[in-house]
Model the fold of this input.
Amino acid sequence: MHPDEKKALRTSQLSVNYGKTPVLWDVTLSIPEGKLVGIVGPNGAGKSTFIKTVLGLIKPIAGKVDFFGKPLPEIRQKIAYVPQRETVDWDFPITAHDLVLMGRYGKIGILRRPRKADHAAADDYLDLVGMAAYRDRQISQLSGGQQQRIYFARALMQEPEVYFLDEPFAGIDISSETVLMDILRRLRTSGKTIFVVHHDLTTVESYFDWIILLNMRLIGYGEVSHVFNPEMLNAAYGKSYALFDEVLKLSRQKTTGME
Amino acid sequence: MDFTLFDYFTDPVLRAPTIGSMLMGLAAGLIGVVVYLRKESLLGETLSHAAFPGAIAGIFVASFLGFTEDITTLFMLLGAGITAFASIYLVNWLQVKVRVPSDAALCFVLAATFGVGITAASQMQFTHAAEYRRMLSLLYGQTATMTDFHIALYGILATSIIVILALLHKEVKIVAFDRNYAFSLGIPVKAIESIFFFLVVLAVIIGIRTVGVVLMSAMLIAPAVSARQFTNRLSTVFLLAGLFGICAGFIGNYLSLTLTHSFSSATTRVSIPTGPTIVLTAATLCLFALICAPERGLASRAWRIMLFRYRCLCENILKCIWRLSPEDGTLTQELVKYFNTSPSLVRLALHSLKRQGWIQNISHQVWRLTPDGKIKAEKIVRLHRLWEVYLADYLGVGAEKVHRNAEEMEHIITPELEEALTKLLKDPKTDPHHQPIPSKNPVL
Done:
C-alpha cells in the first residue's frame, strides 16, 4: 500500500483569507485513518473555516488538501459534513425523516427520486440516533439535542469514511451528547476518521484520540497526550488561557480524584 | 352583461385574461415557494422592476421593425427576460466585487433599472404614443387586451416551470435548506441556483403583463406564505401555493369584471383594474391564512393560549380546594378571592370541573373534591413540589424564589418529564419549604 493511503487527511500550507484579513495561515498536517480528532482553539481561531476549506466550501488562497491521497472531487461521496446547527432555518417545511433522507441526495444523483431502500435507511439511522419516534415531526418541533441527532443521522446516511462535525455539542442536552459520543466512538472503532470542532476543554481528553490545536495558525496536532498540555494551550489561548487552566484542574479533580 | 362561470373559460373576450391570470398565479405561486423559503422576497421585487426597461426596449425594437402584435409581445417578453436576468448578475457583482450588502445591492438595482425604464418610456410619450400606452400598461398590468396567443405562450412558460421544479424538486429543496451541506454532497449548487433564477425570471415576465412590475413580487410571496400556514410538508406547500395562485388569478378577474359592471351606471363609469384586484385577492387569502390557519394561525394560537390559561385555572382551583379543606368543602365565595380573574370565569371553571367528575356539591355553592379529584389535585401539587426541589437542588435557585416558577411549570410537565424528575431527584418526600410531596400513585 502506498504510504499516502493511510492518511485520512493531509493539508499542506493551507492559507485562507476573508477579503484581505488572513484567517488561517500555513496549516500543514496529516491525520492517520481511524482517529477521533478534536479541533480545538479559541473563538475566531478559524476552526470552522478550517473544515469548510478542507471540504471545498471556502476557496483557500494557497495550499493543497487530500483525503487518502486523493483530491476532494474524487472522493467527495466518502466524506460527510455536519454543519453548525444555527446555520439553517429550522422552520423549513420538512420532517425529521425528510432531513435525514437528504444524506442520500448526492448518491441518488440529479433528476432521480429517492428509492424505497433510501427511505428505509433513513428510518434505520433515525432509530440508531434514538429518534425513530420523531420521524414525522416538523424539524422546528425538536429540541436542540434532537435536531443535532437527526443532523448527524443525515451524515450517517452517506455511509462515509470521514466525518466533519462543526460544534455538534454546542447547546445540546447531556443525553444527546452521550448518544452522539457513543456513536462516534463506535464509528472510530470500525475504522472511520472523525473530526469534531470542539469548545469544551474539560472533555477533550476523554473524547478524543488526537487534537488539532488552532489559532489562526496551527499551534500543534497529534495525540492528545502529546499536544494537550499547558504550554500548547497557552500558545493557543494566550492570556485567556489562565482561566481554562483553572477549569482543567477542576475537571481533573472531578474525574481522577485529588491530584 | 351576465356571465356564467363557464363563460370565463369559453368566451373569446373573457377567456384570455382569465386563463392568462390563472397561469400567472400558478407560475408565480410555485416558484414563489422557493423564493420565500430562501428568504429572498426582495429578489422578486428587483427582478420585476429590472424587467421593465427590457420590456420597453423590446416593444420599441419591435415597433421600429414594424412587427405584428404577437411578435411584439415576444420581443417584449424576451427583452424583459434579458434585463431581469442581467440584473441578477449586477446584484451579484455589486455584492462580491464592490462589497455592497445584499439588501442594498437589490434595492439599488431595483431603483436604477426602474428609473432607466421610466425615463426611456417617457421619451416616447410624444413620438410613439401607442407604444407609450402599451409600456405604461406594464406598470400595473392590463389583462383586458390579452389574446389566445398569450394563453399559449404563458401555458408553455408555466408548464416549463412545473416540469423543471418537479424534476429538480430534491435539489431545489436541499439547496434552499442547507446550501453548504448540498455543496458538500457534490450537488451542483451554482447550476441549481442559476436554474432557480431563470424560473423566477420566467414567472416575472408572465406576471408583468397581468399584474404589472410594481405588484408582481406580491404574487410570488403571498401564495407561498399562505400555503406555509397550512402544512409542514414541502410538496404540499408547493401544491397549495400553486392552487392559491390559480384561485387569486381567477377570483381577481371575476371580481374586477363583476364589480366594474355593478358599480357602473349609465352616467358614471367605474373601472376596477384586474391586476391590482388579483393582488388584493392573493393578499386577502394570505391574511386569512395568517389569522385562521389551524396550527400556525394567529387565531388558533390565541385560542390555544386561552385554553391553556383555562386549564391552569381549573387545576389551580382543584389545588386550592385541596389545600383549604379537602373534606368539609369550600365556598365559591372563598375560592373567588384566591384568583384575580373574574368571578364568573371561576364559576364556569367550577361547573366544568364538576361535569368532568373532579368535584361535587355538598350543598349550594359549597364544593368538595371527589376521590378522583383528590388524586388529581395531589398529582398537581406533586409536580409543583418536585419542580421546586429540582430548582433548589440542581439549579441552585433560592428556596424563596422557586414557588413562582413552579406555579407555571406544574401545568406543563408531561408524565415522561415527571418520571425523569422523580428518578433524578430520587423520589424526594419533602419540598424546599419542608412540605410533604404526595406520592406518585394513589395511596391504597
Notes: The domain at 10-220 of chain B is CATH 1.10.3470.10 (ABC transporter involved in vitamin B12 uptake, BtuC). Chain B is about 75% helix and 0% strand. Chain B has a mean pLDDT of 89. The first strand of chain B starts at residue 330 and ends at 331.
